[in-house]
Protein: adenylate kinase
Organism: Eleusine coracana subsp. coracana
Amino acid sequence: MGCSSAPMAFGSLAKGNSGQRLHCIYGLSAVPPTAMAESDTPIEPLALNYLIRLFTSQAGCDNGNFKKPFIAFVLGGPGSGKGTQCNKIASNFGFTHLSAGDLLRQEISSGSEKGESILETIKEGRIVPSEITVELIRKAMKMSNAKRVLIDGFPRCEENRIAFERIMGSEPDVVVFFDCPVDEMIKRLLGRNQGRVDDNIETIKKRLKVFESLNIPVVDYYSSKGKVHKVIVPFCFPKWNYFFIFSVNCLLLLQSGPIEDS
Ligand SMILES: Nc1ncnc2c1ncn2[C@@H]1O[C@H](COP(=O)(O)OP(=O)(O)OP(=O)(O)O)[C@@H](O)[C@H]1O
Ligand SMILES: O=c1ccn([C@@H]2O[C@H](COP(=O)(O)O)[C@@H](O)[C@H]2O)c(=O)[nH]1
C-alpha cells in the first residue's frame, strides 16, 4: 500500500483500553514502515488543502451558517507535539489556535496579580484553577470571533471540563488525543530550549503524573461519548508527518464545514 492511499487516512472506530469508542486517526499505522517505498512522494500541504476542500464540499455540511464555533480540544501529554501540530493546522487550514498554556503565560507576562500565582502553579506542574483558565479561553474566543477553534492543552482535568461546559454552554465537537510514549515526551521537553520554567526534569515528572491521573480521565470521558480521535506518535519517517496533518485535517474539516472564502 503506497503513501497516497487517501481513504486510509480516515481511520476507523476501534475499542480503547477500557472499552471506550476510539477513532484511530492514524489509519496508516497498520502498514509496517518497511512496506513504504522510499520513492513514495509525500502529499504537499497545498494538495491536502485542495483535497480537504473537495471532501468538505461533499460532506453535507451546513453551507457556512455556523450557529456556534466548531471546537476541537487537542489533548496529549507534555511534549507530545500538540502545539507544533496545532500551529500547522491553524496556518494551513483556517483554524484559530488557542493554547491554554500560552494564554496563562501571557497572563504572567502581563504582570497581573493573578499572574504571580499562575507562575507558581506552572513551576509546580499543577493545574491552574478552572475559573481563571476558562475565563482566558472565553475572552480569547470572543476576541477572535473564530468559526473553528483548536483549544490546545485544555481541559487538564474533569473539573476543567465541567467548568468549560457549564460556562461556555457547549461541548467540544471533537477531541484529538496525541498518544506519545513517555520517553519520547521527556526527550522532546528537555530539548525544547524555549526557556520555559517547567521544562526541567523535576517539573516534567510532576506534569507527567498530573497528566496520567487527571488528564487521562478527561480523554476517557470523551472516548465514552465517541468523540476522541487518537493520533499515534512519533512518526517513523519525517515524511509521514504529512499523513498526520492530512488525517487530522480531513477529520476536523469534515466535521466543521467548508472554509468560507473571505
Ligand atoms: N513530530 C515531532 N518529532 C520530533 N520533535 C517534535 C515533534 N513534534 C514536536 N516536536 C518537538 O518537541 C517539543 C515539544 O513539542 P510541542 O511544544 O509541540 O509539544 P506540546 O505537546 O505542545 O507540549 P506542552 O504541552 O509542554 O506545551 C518541541 O521542541 C517540538 O519542536
Ligand atoms: O488548561 C491548562 C493549561 C495549562 N496549565 C498549566 O500550564 C502548564 C503548561 O501548559 P502547556 O499546555 O504544557 O503549555 C501546565 O503544566 C499547567 O501547569 C493549566 O494549569 N491549565
